[in-house]
């Protein structure tokens, strides 16, 4: 099984009555989703995406990825939030965190436009000076400041390096099909464009061209990924919590929140899953954190963070529960060697595979944390691959929608993010009546 919810560490915290109590809310949330009459129902494009994606565009993505692979050493994906995290998570998940050093026949992949650090961007631009470069700017709105700035700088670099016409062959744009400055610019310059569907919000967009082009450039099979998502879609149709782990996960989150567990710590024992945690944090944080509600989504990578956060988790304020992504099969076998002198005293582990030790660390930690009053929701993931990533994405997206509806929020908007963007436009002096008005309001507060 690709993914299985193991609730054996939860029995002290979630009772059969709790499940029975929340079951009608699950049914109501499910109804909203399938009848498309809940809040934010204009943004349900992700629901059928794994089966109803644009086939012609997917083929174009594969072709563009081939062209990119042939023509560059470095590929820079420019985007922020939902236009960044999914692709980065997928590449780490499928290829590992050392992809750039271990890749074979595919370009190094860097991510830009996800901050405003002058050093970060300058270093990346320097790194690209002597390399052949292609870029993909990704912005649904086409107006977000961070990627817009990075794109301007990278476009200038490419135009200087190759001339305007040849640079245009190396610039790929993923944005709205008709609206926005980025679309206008792409059309004027003749860049190849890919579409962010109207009905798919940023954090639900990894299986659209937003994520799929960078993922394909890394040599990952996007069709396998979409197939994984399609399989998950078919697996999670029932409202019976015993038959639907996605709904059960949504139920457990809300049950624990109501019992005072206000922080959900997403933990894994693989650093290749750390960016998946970042993607998950955005998905749940932006979908549920509104109207004074929601679980705070945090993350940790063990065993590394057991030596920093472990103390707090075990004995600190009792607001946490953990969702552990427990990888069953490692991508690599690595046996611990025997040592004649046994100077380090490790021979009791000689011949044991490192993944066995890692999984034992998980079992030991889950028992300890549960004793420390930290409930553990365990999601057993069979292995790391494109199919599994697609499956996992769909699982979390579906659970997020159901969980958000149970919580009583619109899981598909992000008014808080818009607030910061608007404030920044105003403070930076962006022209326009709306920005001027806000500038005056903010001046009164400063
Ligand atoms: O999930 C979201 O909607 C946001 O995180 C956006 O993805 C993010 O703000 C970037 O927006 P855009 O793609 O319009 O540049």
Quick synopsis:
The chain has 446 residues and is an alpha/beta fold.
Mean pLDDT: 97
Helical/strand content category: alpha/beta
Q: What is the molecular shape? A: globular
Order of strands side by side in the largest beta sheet?
1-10-9-7-8
Query: If you compute it from the alpha carbons, what radius of gyration comes out, rounded to the nearest whole angstrom?
Result: 23 Å
What is the makeup of the main sheet?
5 strands, mixed
Q: How helix-rich are the residues, as a percent range? A: 40-55%
| First-residue to last-residue Cα separation | 55 Å
Residue windows where pLDDT falls under 50 for at least 5 positions: none
Ligands bound here? 5-phosphoarabinonic acid
Compressed to H and E, one letter per element, the order equals EHHHEHHEHEHHEHEHHHEHEHEHEHHH
| Total E-strand runs | 10
Q: Helical segment tally?
A: 18
Q: How large a portion of the residues is in β-strands, by DSSP E?
A: 5-15%
């Amino acid at each position: 099984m690709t993914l299985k919810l193991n609730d054996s560490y939860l029995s002290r915290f979630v009772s059969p009555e709790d499940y029975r109590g929340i079951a009608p809310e699950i049914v109501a949330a499910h109804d909203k989703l399938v009848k498309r009459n809940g809040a934010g129902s204009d943004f349900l494009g992700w629901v059928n995406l794994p089966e109803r994606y644009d086939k012609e565009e997917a083929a174009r993505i594969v072709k563009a990825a081939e062209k990119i692979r042939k023509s560059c050493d470095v590929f820079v994906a420019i985007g922020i939030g939902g236009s960044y995290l999914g692709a980065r998570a997928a590449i780490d998940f499928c290829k590992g965190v050392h992809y750039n050093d271990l890749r074979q026949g595919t370009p190094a992949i860097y991510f830009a436009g996800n901050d405003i650090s002058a050093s970060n961007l300058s270093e990346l631009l320097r790194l690209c000076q002597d390399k052949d470069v292609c870029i993909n700017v990704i912005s649904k709105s086409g107006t977000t400041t961070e990627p817009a700035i990075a794109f301007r700088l990278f476009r200038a670099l490419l135009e200087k390096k190759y001339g305007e016409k040849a640079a245009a062959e190396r610039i790929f744009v993923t944005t709205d099909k008709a609206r926005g400055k980025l679309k206008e610019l792409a059309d004027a310059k003749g860049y190849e464009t890919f579409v962010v569907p109207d009905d798919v919000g940023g954090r639900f967009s990894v299986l659209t061209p937003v994520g799929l082009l960078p993922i394909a450039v890394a040599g990952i099979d996007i069709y396998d990924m979409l197939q994984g998502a399609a399989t998950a879609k078919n697996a999670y149709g029932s409202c019976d919590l015993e038959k639907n782990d996605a709904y059960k996960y949504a139920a457990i989150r809300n049950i624990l929140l109501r019992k005072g567990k206000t922080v959900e710590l997403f933990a894994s024992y693989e650093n290749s899953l750390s960016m998946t945690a970042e993607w998950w944090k955005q998905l749940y944080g932006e979908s549920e954190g509104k109207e004074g509600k929601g679980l705070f989504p945090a993350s940790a990578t063990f065993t590394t963070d057991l030596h920093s956060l472990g103390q707090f988790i075990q004995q600190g304020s009792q607001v946490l529960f953990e969702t552990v992504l427990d990888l069953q099969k490692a991508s690599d076998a690595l046996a611990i060697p025997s040592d004649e002198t046994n100077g380090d005293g490790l021979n009791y582990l000689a011949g044991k595979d490192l993944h066995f030790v890692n999984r034992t660390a998980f079992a030991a930690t889950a028992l300890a944390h549960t004793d420390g009053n930290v409930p553990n929701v365990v999601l057993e993931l069979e292995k790391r691959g494109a199919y599994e990533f697609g499956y996992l994405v769909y699982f979390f997206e579906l659970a997020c929608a159901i969980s958000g509806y149970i919580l009583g929020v619109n899981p598909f908007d992000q008014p808080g993010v818009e607030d910061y963007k608007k404030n920044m436009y105003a403070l930076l002096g962006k022209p326009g009546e709306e920005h001027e008005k806000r500038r005056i309001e903010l001046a009164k507060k400063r």
